[in-house]
Amino acid sequence: MQIGPHKSCLLAVLLCGVTIAPVSTTAAPRKGKQQQQQAPAPADKAAMTPVSLSLRNQALTTLWEIRATKPQLQALKKLANECADDHPRIPGQVGPKLRQTMEGLHDALVEAKDEDLIAGLQDQYDRETDARNIDLDDEVKLTQPAKQHAPDVLKMLSVRQLASFITYNEDLLVDPREELEDLVRKMKTIPPDKWEAERDSVADDAGMLLAGLHDAKVKEVSDRVRQWLDKAHQLDDQAFTKKLPDLVADIPNVVGEVDSVQAIQHWARREIATLLSNSELTNAIDERLK
Length: 290
Known about the structure:
The radius of gyration is 20 Å and the shape is globular. 67% of the residues lie in helices and 0% in strands. The protein has 2 domains: 5-15 and 43-170 and 265-289, no CATH class; 176-257, no CATH class. The protein is mostly helical. The relative contact order is 0.19. The protein has 13 helices and no strands.
C-alpha cells in the first residue's frame, strides 16, 4: 500500500475528515506527579547518554517530518509532560563513529533546514546500527494520555503537513495482506533463529494498521495472525508446497476487511501517540524553539 507524493494531499484530507480543529492543550496533571519537576536537558549534547540522544532524535525526526510550526511546538509542549513514558532505561553504549553520526543527525534535525543532509545522516545511522547490531533501550511505550490526545493532535496538522508525514513514511505503509503473503511465500527460507522476529513484526504491523490505538483489538488481530503463521510454518516442506495456494487464498480471511484510509489513519495516530509518549519530546521542542 505504497503512496506516491501526488496522492498524499488527497489522502491527508480523508485522514482529517471534514474539519481540521485545533488541539486542546489543557493537560491534566498525572497522578502522583503534580510536584515532579522535569530534569533539565544537558547543556551539551555530548553529555547525553546514547539512549537519551536516540530518543531525542526520534522526537526531532517526527517534528521534522510533520513540519511542525512554532505554535504547534508550543501546543505539543503543553502535553508532553503529561504524556511522557518515563520508565527507567539502560543508558547504552555506542562507539565514537556512531556517536558522531547521532550528534550530527541531532544538529541537522534541530536546524531543520537541509533535507538532503538529514536523509543522508539517517541512512548512515541505519547502516552503522545494522552493521554493529546495536540494540538500544529506546523503545517508546504508548501512554494512555498520549493515546487520548493523539487524534486531536493529528487534526491540528494542516493537509500539507499530513501529506509530508505520509510521504516520508510511505515505505512503512504496506497492506497487511501483501506483507502476510510475502512472509508466507518465503517462510521456509527464514533461519529458525529469525522466524519469531519476522513473524511478530508482520503480526504486530497487522494489528496496528487494522486496530490502531485499541489495545485489545490490536492484540486480538496480532495473535490471530501469529497463530495462523505458526500453523503454516509447522508444515513439512512437502505439505507446505502443496498447500501454499490455499494458504495465500486464506489470507483475506485471516486479516479480515482492510479499509486502506482507516489503516493509514490508525498508523498516523499511533505515530503521533509515540511522539507524545517520547520522554525527550519536551527537550526536543525546547531545542527547536531556541
